[in-house]
């Protein structure tokens, strides 16, 4: 009797195990699909590789325009701390000393000869296809409501496709379609939209730079190529170099210190 009871228990145990392992029809049950990242998580991760870091950081950029057969280039030093940024033109001589100060979403411009800084918009054209807001750190998580609307490839890279809508009127764009790589959560492509949803320019991104934070190396943006959607051949390339973590004093981002 004892032997029969033990045998029955073993049979029932195997049966229960089989029911968990095999689905109807005798085939193994598929493992539960991993939960895809949210739009907020994707934006937070991708923003980091474009300068939205909690600590201070600086980098240099060349903004180079190719338009109507002509070419123009300005070199900037950019310093970032949290939601504040300072971009100062270093060369050529005609632009030297021109400075833009970003305090959260507020933006001021100053250059030698002005008595005081002038409030400007992040949407205003800086050079060619680049807007003022394009040269500071990117904080799409803060500035836009994001929604994952699909999956597509950018070149050979699998990406999540997001739709972004501006949270406020003083951000750089009304809307953006944004492709973020599945593997590394890097923003690889963007289409910038008017308030009516029409694309007026697009951009492709590269990440050949590296920065070390908390002992870990991470990819950092190296190029943003902005193309005019209506004017073929007209584009602006922003090249990023020498990104490095730095502790910037708060005084560098004080509007009262722009005039010196």
Can you describe what's shown?
The chain is built from 3 helices and 17 strands. The radius of gyration is 25 Å and the shape is globular. It has a single domain, classed as outer membrane lipoprotein receptor (LolB), chain A (Clam). The protein is mainly beta. Strands 6-5-4-3-2-1-17-16-13-12-11-10-9 form a 13-stranded antiparallel beta sheet. A two-stranded antiparallel ribbon has the order 7-8. Strands 14-15 form a two-stranded antiparallel ribbon.
Number of extended strands: 17
Task: Show unreliable segments.
Answer: 1-25
Task: Please tell me the CATH architecture by its name.
Answer: Clam
Global morphology: globular
Give the topology, please.
Elements: H1 2-21, H2 39-48, E1 56-67, E2 70-81, E3 84-91, E4 99-103, E5 106-110, E6 118-120, E7 125-127, E8 130-131, H3 140-143, E9 144-154, E10 157-166, E11 175-181, E12 187-193, E13 199-206, E14 209-213, E15 216-220, E16 223-228, E17 235-245
Antiparallel strand pairs: 1-2, 1-17, 2-3, 3-4, 4-5, 5-6, 7-8, 9-10, 10-11, 11-12, 12-13, 13-16, 14-15, 16-17
Summary, kept brief:
This protein is mostly beta strands and 260 residues long. 13% of the residues lie in helices and 46% in strands.
Main attributes?
single chain, 260 residues, mainly beta, outer membrane lipoprotein receptor (LolB), chain A, 13-stranded antiparallel beta sheet, two-stranded antiparallel ribbon, 13% helix, disordered N terminus
